[in-house]
């Protein structure tokens, strides 16, 4: 086994990564492709990849970021929606062995992919990642949505028609290449973070730079896709995500609050699903986290896990003390609706104070 910077992987090794991933049987999530790791490496100097070899050929790849005191984290932790190692089926290796080879005392994850048997025993929590299945085409999905949530579907489509009448027409662009539209989306999203009392991700230079670079990434396994809903020529809702041939990972949605009464974000997601189906995409992964629009649109969910794997030792113990008490407190609050509601109202009040 050897550890390299992502940019040191040659094209043959990157292709081996893609082939191993294709053979895994897991959904073709773009966050698990080498292109995402390479993009993160451009903005996170601690990015590394462990290359596991067997018989002189690559048998696995483990992307991660190395921090102080040997504390590791999933590549792009905080924004990556699918995490883990890419291994040959049947490869025998343990998490402690892998972490020692990477000189890590611990490795933290918050969206560990289902089926990652190497790290799954160390998960502290499991949650759902809602998905929209459009494998049978958009018409079939819309028919199911209409049958399951007739009022939601009727209201959303009515708002779309009303927006079109009042604005003099609407149009949807599935893959918008205009950088100005991306800047608008990031401004909306930053305002939303502040409005809801959350940390503004785009205030972190590495995240905003990463998104801009991924917008320019065009490969079969990982491409940036900016989708925009326009009222006349004015953008009213947008979304930036990553796609492979068969999966669209939904990442950063936002809308112009001046048009909130038209629910432009919901209209956008329906148009995204329709366009994605035409592109041959079978699944929209809406990402972990509770939201009413996800509950309304989803057809099912994948399972993701949060936790950390450690190697026995003092550094691992210190890591556990710095992370697990807070994680347990968050889990306690989330599992109690009244407390969770109070926490959300508090965040909203903080957001309003920030905006004033």
Automatic annotation (TrEMBL):
Domain BioF2-like acetyltransferase: 153-294
Pfam family, one: Acetyltransf_6
Gene3D superfamilies: 3.40.630.30
Name the UniProt record assigns to this protein: GNAT family N-acetyltransferase
Taxonomic placement: Bacteria, Bacillati, Actinomycetota, Actinomycetes, Kitasatosporales
């Amino acid at each position: 086994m050897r550890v390299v910077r992502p940019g040191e992987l040659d094209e043959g090794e990157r292709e081996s990564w893609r082939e191993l991933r294709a053979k895994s049987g897991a959904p073709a999530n773009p966050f698990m492709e080498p292109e995402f790791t390479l993009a993160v490496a451009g903005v996170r100097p601690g990015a590394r990849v462990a290359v596991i070899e067997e018989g002189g050929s690559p048998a696995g790849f483990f992307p991660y970021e190395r921090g102080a005191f040997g504390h590791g984290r999933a590549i792009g932790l905080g924004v990556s929606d699918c995490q883990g190692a890419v291994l040959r089926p049947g490869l025998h290796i343990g998490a402690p062995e892998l972490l020692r080879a990477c000189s890590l005392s611990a490795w933290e994850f918050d969206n560990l992919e289902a089926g990652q048997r190497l790290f799954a025993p160390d998960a502290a929590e499991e949650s759902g990642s809602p998905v929209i299945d459009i494998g049978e085409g958009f018409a079939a999905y819309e028919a199911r949505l209409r049958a399951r949530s007739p009022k939601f579907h009727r209201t959303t489509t009515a708002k779309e028609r009303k927006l079109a009448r009042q604005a003099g027409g609407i149009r949807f662009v599935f893959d918008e290449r205009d950088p100005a539209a991306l800047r608008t989306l990031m401004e909306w999203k930053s305002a939303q973070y502040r409005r809801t009392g959350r940390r503004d991700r785009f205030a972190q230079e590495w995240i905003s730079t990463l998104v801009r670079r991924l917008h320019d990434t065009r490969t079969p396994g990982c491409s940036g896709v900016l989708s925009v809903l326009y009222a006349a020529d004015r953008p009213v809702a947008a979304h930036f995500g990553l796609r492979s041939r068969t999966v669209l990972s939904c990442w950063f949605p936002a809308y112009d609050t001046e048009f909130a009464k038209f629910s432009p974000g919901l209209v956008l997601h329906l148009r995204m699903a329709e366009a994605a189906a035409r592109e041959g995409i079978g699944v929209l992964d809406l990402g972990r986290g509770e939201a009413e629009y996800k509950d309304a649109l989803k057809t099912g969910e994948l399972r993701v896990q949060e936790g950390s794997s450690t190697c026995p030792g003092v550094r691992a113990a210190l890591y556990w003390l710095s992370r697990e008490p807070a994680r347990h407190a968050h889990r306690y609050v989330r599992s109690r609706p009244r407390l969770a509601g109070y926490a959300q109202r508090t965040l909203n009040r903080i957001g309003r104070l920030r905006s004033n």
